[in-house]
């Protein structure tokens, strides 16, 4: 009786593999669980063990062939005395396997929000074999809105990492597996066959590149010593070549030194550092450029005397902080002033949808925050219904979450207008770019004492330049100027905010 050798399940999104090499040939005696053939996918190599002892009767696919999951690879003929113990061995192994499966916990890509359908895998904080505690950070995912840390749902040992840094994953996609039993020493070696792990460069490997990897290196003019292999014994896989090409490795070092890109000299190129753009940074770049290309963007300017607001802060800041548990800053006043102006000039609080204009009868104000990963814009929802104290509390909460990388998609979506404060970095004047599909963005700047004419006399006043960038397709010049004047009036007479004037 013959036993079939078939392609095993290779992962949630992997449907085919390439035959890398056979370890046995027809006629060879084999033992149960002995490696027979090595399969290569875009990301990992997997050794297929013998399902039973006997003699390798036939091989039906050759090295370099591509096969689908479940495809027949070969057949094993029962050897003398091998047939009887084989079923017993398999039966005995079934129980531990079932017990082990119960302790394996899948960690999958979490849902990141209604409008987010994918994320990019950032840096892993763990590797196969590491012991983790519940809530330890495993990996950071980068979406087009923010970075999100994925915590360990249970304590245990990492036995499989299913997604490499730079991979794009959808919600529900397997990221890694944790053995929560605490006894996973036996599982770790098996996991290594299907987990990306640090490996020496292929130049120091005794394994030749996988067939598909070798083909791709030839196509892209990449030499083997330019690619770090992640396969067994440092073998270069197709995914390694894809990663190297994405990182800008497109020619052998010798060619690069004789043909430097553009005007950059070879000496300068050695001193350069090439890093992968995060998905967040790529999206920031794309969205800002799209806004410039799409909107009829125009900016109008004004200036505001910040003296009244500063005096009000100075008088009440201690009492305000004692009562509300948050410091009285400028953003509360600016957000409230913007909400008043949006109510009067609704065009600034609208957006274009095809040939329609959508007027928002609510004020979700985005507050641009700079982080080490890039610009993010968390949203203060229904800011028009909040007091200045409530706005300050919410901005403080969102700011902390932004710095800690804890912002969720619910914190980042739905804004109808944006405020950007370049003044915290010392900017005196700038023209902010729209946060599409919004039709307006207010730029705050540095407060600087300047000589001003007041009632016929020159006095020194703390002044701030304001800039309103708007979509001229939606907002007329008169509306934009009026909006900015209303913001100025509210800030120069903050009692208007209290009296809703």
From TrEMBL:
Residues covered by the Peripheral subunit-binding (PSBD) domain: 208-245
Domain Lipoyl-binding stretches: 2-77, 104-179
Pfam family, one: 2-oxoacid_dh
Any GO molecular function: dihydrolipoyllysine-residue succinyltransferase activity
EC class: transferase
InterPro entries xrefs: 2-oxoA_DH_lipoyl-BS (IPR003016), 2-oxoacid_dehydrogenase (IPR050537), 2-oxoacid_DH_actylTfrase (IPR001078), Biotin_lipoyl (IPR000089), CAT-like_dom_sf (IPR023213), E3-bd_dom_sf (IPR036625), PSBD (IPR004167), Single_hybrid_motif (IPR011053)
The keyword Ribonucleoprotein is assigned to this record: no
Region described as Disordered: 196-216
Catalytic activity: N(6)-[(R)-dihydrolipoyl]-L-lysyl-[protein] + succinyl-CoA = N(6)-[(R)-S(8)-succinyldihydrolipoyl]-L-lysyl-[protein] + CoA
Keywords: Acyltransferase, Lipoyl, Transferase, Tricarboxylic acid cycle
Keyword Ligase: no
Cited PANTHER family: DIHYDROLIPOYLLYSINE-RESIDUE SUCCINYLTRANSFERASE COMPONENT OF 2-OXOGLUTARATE DEHYDROGENASE COMPLEX, MITOCHONDRIAL, DIHYDROLIPOYLLYSINE-RESIDUE SUCCINYLTRANSFERASE COMPONENT OF 2-OXOGLUTARATE DEHYDROGENASE COMPLEX, MITOCHONDRIAL-RELATED
The family this protein is said to belong to: Belongs to the 2-oxoacid dehydrogenase family.
Function: E2 component of the 2-oxoglutarate dehydrogenase (OGDH) complex which catalyzes the second step in the conversion of 2-oxoglutarate to succinyl-CoA and CO(2).
Protein name: Dihydrolipoyllysine-residue succinyltransferase component of 2-oxoglutarate dehydrogenase complex
Species per Swiss-Prot/TrEMBL record: Roseibium polysiphoniae
Lineage of producing organism: Bacteria, Pseudomonadati, Pseudomonadota, Alphaproteobacteria, Hyphomicrobiales
């Amino acid at each position: 009786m013959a036993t079939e050798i078939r392609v095993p399940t290779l992962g949630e999104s992997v449907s085919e593999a390439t035959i890398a090499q056979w370890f046995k040939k027809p006629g060879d005696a084999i033992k149960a669980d002995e490696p027979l053939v090595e399969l290569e996918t875009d990301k990992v190599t997997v050794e297929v063990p013998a399902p039973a002892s006997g003699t390798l009767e036939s091989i039906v696919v050759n090295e370099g062939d591509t096969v689908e999951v479940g495809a027949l690879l070969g057949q094993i003929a029962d050897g003398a005395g091998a047939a009887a113990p084989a079923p017993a061995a398999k039966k005995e192994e079934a129980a531990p396997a079932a017990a082990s499966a119960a302790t394996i916990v899948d960690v999958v890509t979490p849902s990141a929000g209604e409008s987010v359908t994918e994320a990019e895998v950032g840096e892993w904080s763990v590797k196969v074999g590491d012991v983790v505690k519940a809530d330890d950070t495993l990996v950071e995912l980068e979406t087009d809105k923010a970075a999100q840390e994925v915590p360990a749902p249970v304590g245990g040992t990492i036995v499989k990492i299913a997604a490499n840094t730079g991979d794009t994953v959808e919600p529900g996609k397997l990221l890694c597996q944790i053995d929560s039993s605490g006894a996973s020493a036996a599982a770790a070696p098996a996991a290594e066959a299907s987990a990306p792990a640090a490996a020496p460069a292929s130049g120091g490997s005794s394994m030749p590149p996988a067939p598909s990897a070798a083909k791709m290196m030839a196509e892209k003019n990449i030499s083997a010593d330019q690619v770090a292999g992640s396969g067994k014994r440092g073998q270069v896989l197709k995914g390694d070549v894809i990663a190297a090409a994405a990182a800008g490795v497109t020619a052998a070092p010798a060619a690069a030194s004789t043909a430097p890109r553009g005007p950059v000299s070879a000496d300068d190129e050695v001193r350069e550092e090439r890093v992968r753009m995060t998905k967040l940074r790529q999206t920031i770049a794309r969205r800002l450029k799209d806004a410039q290309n799409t909107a009829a963007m125009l900016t109008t300017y004004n200036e505001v005397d910040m003296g009244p607001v500063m005096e009000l802060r100075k008088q009440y800041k201690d009492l305000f902080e004692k009562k509300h548990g948050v410091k009285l800053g400028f953003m509360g006043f600016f957000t409230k002033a913007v909400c008043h102006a949006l109510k009067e000039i609704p065009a600034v609080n609208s957006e274009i949808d095809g040939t329609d204009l959508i007027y928002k009868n609510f004020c979700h104000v985005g507050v641009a925050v700079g982080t080490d990963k890039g610009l993010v814009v968390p949203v203060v929802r229904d800011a028009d219904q909040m007091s200045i104290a409530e706005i300050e509390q919410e901005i403080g909460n969102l700011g902390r979450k932004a710095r800690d990388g804890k912002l969720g998609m619910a914190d980042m979506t739905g804004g109808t207008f944006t405020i950007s404060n370049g003044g915290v970095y010392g900017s005196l004047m700038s023209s902010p770019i729209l946060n599409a599909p919004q039709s307006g963005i207010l730029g705050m700047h540095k407060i600087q004492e300047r000589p001003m004419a007041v009632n016929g006399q020159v006095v020194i006043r703390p002044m701030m330049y304001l800039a309103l960038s708007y979509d001229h397709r939606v907002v007329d010049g008169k509306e934009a100027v009026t909006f900015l004047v209303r913001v100025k009036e509210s800030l120069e007479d903050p009692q208007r905010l209290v009296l809703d004037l």
